[in-house]
Amino acid sequence: MRDIYLSNTLSRNKELFVPINPGRMGIYVCGPTVYGDAHLGHARPGVTYDVLVKLFRHLGYKVRYVRNITDVGHLEHDADEGEDKIAKKARLDQLEPMEVVQNYTLRYHEAMRQLNVAPPSIEPRASGHIVEQIEAVKKILSTGYAYESNGSIYFDVRKYNEDHHYGILSGRNLDDTLEGTRALDGQSDKRAPFDFAIWKKAEPQHIMKWPSPWGEGFPGWHLECSVMGEKYLGHEFDIHGGGMDLMFPHHECEIAQNVASRGTQGVHYWVHNNMITINGQKMGKSLGNFITLPQLFAGEHDKLEQPYSPMTVRFFILQAHYRGTLDFSNEALQAAGKALKRVMAAAKDLYAMAGRKAPVYAYGEQLSAVAPDECIADNAEIKAIFNGVYEALCDDLNTPIALSHIFDAVRIINTVKDGKLKLSENDLAVLCQLFDDVVFGVLGLKDEDNEGGKAMETIDGLMQMVLQNRAEARAEAKVTKDWSKCDQIRDALKALGIQVKDGKDGVTWTLE
Ligand SMILES: [Zn+2]
């Protein structure tokens, strides 16, 4: 098995990954709060952890990937104030909160499917783990790191910081955390402004609330990830992922809760992806540069010059290292689209030269091929490309370097196509393997011009039968003058959205 190195936010170092259980990897990633459509900022962790998980599986690990859905407890303002984001949306749209959750969960899944981000192994919801969260609150109270105040339970950060380091992940100390925190206004139930709610008392008008030993309420947002991570991955697990914006306070609070409730920080490698900016600006609803994924795919936003396909977006994300910022602009997306087309055109030529077809992976299908430890290519350059790709991916998931090697392969394929170079059958097979396993497998790219793959081939086979029947019905009708069968076929195809064209070179069909 190849070694893999990851940047660990906790140690601020790139470290060799050593699994807790040999051959297995457990990862928890903070998922979306489902009160609106997924935007560009959701695409990046979606794609990043998808590639990371696919890489681990390809290296031979058995992976359990947990990505949660936040459907309760995420308040509008960080300091435990404001309305629950989902309850607010439900109030505005006059819906049940769970209708909002269901709608945006399905829309999130669809956007991830379009980006070819495979579903996680488990997708737990905060509202489905209230009992476990109440138990965790009890434990934290019993270890003395939380206090009750007016029906809410707050984490006692100062007390915790006397025994442990609050700020260990983000590299802050307690005084730093005071900056940017609003002073208590006297109305607050908290002892100190940096304390955070692990259980919030529900006001009478609050809809999403549950009974607890402290009265009716709901869990604090940070608690769900501590609780669901432990439930599905154990006391300690390998990797915790999420956006850099979650490092503080969300992940810092998770560590504190873990230590307070189970005596261990719980996570061995903290991996954070950086943000996406738009024309150098932070993305935000108030700035009007907030682009949802459906808008991006449809090209429906003032900032968009055209629609961008899901694979263009995926490629754009892979062109940058996940720890660096990524700036969205039309030019950058257009360049990504062109680069992707070059790779796909070369792939087509490569498989044609090798006399085989590109692999078609069903959505969410796990790559069965395990990465070889050695490359068996004859050609030294191909060997270097092959090794370079794996070295880059195993070096903290360096997808831009891996792609630069893929472009070297593209150049070689084009040289062969131009007749200026000949490759052995073995070398062609090695290149095909690289495209099978890495380009289409780990990196999860797809040829969008050949969408549907196997299914489309089958449909085309069926359509040839239908078109044959249509031709026979027509020939018959010319004699009998009874066009009913022809009309029937025409109407049925139309209802299915299939357009048939009778051209010079025969009959063709397209899906509307
Ligand atoms: Zn989380």
Briefly say what this structure is.
The protein has 512 residues and is α/β, with parallel strands linked by helices. Helices cover 45% and strands 15% of the residues. The chain has three domains: 5-273, Rossmann fold, CATH 3.40.50; 295-449, Isoleucyl-tRNA Synthetase, Domain 1, CATH 1.10.730; 453-511.
Description:
The protein is α/β, with parallel strands linked by helices. It has 3 domains: 5-273, Rossmann fold (3-Layer(aba) Sandwich), CATH 3.40.50; 295-449, Isoleucyl-tRNA Synthetase, Domain 1 (Orthogonal Bundle); 453-511. The chain is built from 16 helices and 17 strands. The chain has helices at residues 40-58, 85-93, 97-114, 130-142, 157-163, 174-178, 221-233, 247-262, 293-298, 310-318, 330-353, 380-394, 399-417, 425-442, 453-480, 484-495, and strands at 5-8, 13-16, 24-29, 62-67, 75-77, 81-84, 146-149, 152-155, 196-201, 217-219, 237-243, 267-273, 276-278, 281-282, 326-328, 498-503, 506-511. A 4-stranded parallel β-sheet has the order 4-3-11-12, sandwiched between helices. Strands 7-8-9-10 form a 4-stranded antiparallel β-sheet. It has a 3-stranded mixed β-sheet with strand order 14-13-15. Strand 13 and strand 14 (281-282) form a beta hairpin. Helix 4 (130-142) packs across helix 7 and helix 11 runs antiparallel to helix 14. The longest helix has 28 residues, at 453-480. 40% of the residues are buried. The mean pLDDT is 92. It binds zinc ion.
